[in-house]
Give the backbone structure.
Amino acid sequence: MRLGVMGGTFDPIHIGHLVTAEEALYQFELDEVLFVPSARPPHKTDSRQSDARHRLRMVELSIEADPSLSVSAMELEREGLSYTIDTLRQIHAERGKGTDLYFITGADAILEILTWKDPEELLAESRFIAATRPGYPLEKLAEALPDSNSAGEAALRSVSAMEIPALAISSTDIRRRASEGRPFRYLVCDAVWSYIRENGLYR
Ligand code: ATP
Ligand code: MG
């Protein structure tokens, strides 16, 4: 079993996330991609942040018709802050050690994950796929990891870059567009577009 895992706040989930998941399924011959919405860190006091319930529901609506995509609320149900390492260990515990994990991120997020925490533990649990996104070339990762750090070098070797069709789409931009009344309808799935309007999100 080859399982892709994609963490994020998904506020809201957009087609950039879905394109990335689909491309990883294809390029890395994955059986499934699991979306794991994260709890909001308490220091993020953005007043426009959405309830976990909304973020989870928008992921569910987006993946409903695709049997190779699934969602887990494990980080939302866990107490306190969630760390990627805990999530990967929990998935391994639930699915069995025979499941190979591929943690999928944008190239911007891989920088945060592998340079802020001890990469060795993460590397023992999962491989990493970094989708290159406009403005976040993967070379930045090499720059961020010191040459003298062997764990850093190992981390770099275990990250596979994956090119995706250039998508300058972000949730931040969608939230801003929604709040300013600018268009964003086709940056998200139909059902998410309807959900945002019905629930008055990002106004
Ligand atoms: P925000 O602007 O609020 O940070 P976001 O669009 O970056 O939102 P997140 O929920 O933070 O979305 O991201 C979840 C994961 O998806 C991260 O690994 C991020 O790097 C990746 N990602 C986000 N947007 C894209 C995109 N357009 N193409 C590829 N990957 C993306
Ligand atoms: Mg982000």
